[in-house]
Amino acid sequence: MNEKVINEVEITQIDRRYEEFRLENKIEERIIMNSILEGGIRDALLCVIDSKENIVLLDGFKRLRCAVSLKIHTVPTLSLGSDEADGILQFIRLSNARSLNILEQSALVDQLNVAHDMSIKQIAHHLERSPAWVSVRLGMIQEMTTTVRKAVFSGQFPVRSYMYNLRRFTRVKKVPKKEVDTFVQSVAGKSLSTRDIETLAYGYFHGGDYLKEQIEQGKLEFTLKQLRRKDLLSEDHTLGPQEQRVIKDLELVQKYMGSIRNALTDKCLCTKSFFQVSDLLVEGILSQLLDFQNCLQDFHDKRR
User: What CATH number labels 1-82?
Assistant: First the structure.
């Protein structure tokens, strides 16, 4: 890049193929929106011109989306050259000053390795980094499933929750990727705090089938209350023997209510003997159910 020539380009001419390689952040985007309203787009968007003369954007997606929302038709762009791989390499080298997130680095390094057939040594050489630096980033992006990557890069699942909680935990425990996907799908886009996601992750991967089922069914607030209650009980050593027994019995009732509800829908339950015994038990439970519900409701109402 010998001459830094800034060109005004029609937004409709910009190729956004790398948009999914950059993390979305709605808060930052609102700040940028206000800045553009006050003084326009001050920093040029970085791009490369590929072999088909496409203007391929590498940096400035937040500014571009803001421009679209504000019905601005042209944006200032700065070309990093006509070679896509070289442009990516230049951009990563510039990223120290532009705060490129480690996951974004990983996605771009992976693109160099997979799409542009560059070896780890070649990438390391061009970036003036160690092969280990490159390998770590390749491993990081390649261990993300499509579901997790989409949730994280779209801003639906917090980067911090993934990097410092979910990723570390699942790697140590060797949790199947399918379970990780299901958890991320269950909590992504729900505007949960990183602390709440950490609490739910603990319940999902440590709390047994009952809590896992509640989270998958979207009962997140209910599950958080259950987990917070357990945290309070673990810190409270003042419960008497009778109180401890009642708490234990209530936990068992809650657990088996969900377990029985699911079990009774099983089509394998079909023998005559089973129905003879189960009908008697169900009849006995139903006869006590209203009184039991009233007792629970009365106890609950008195505590409010």
Answer: 3.90.1530.10
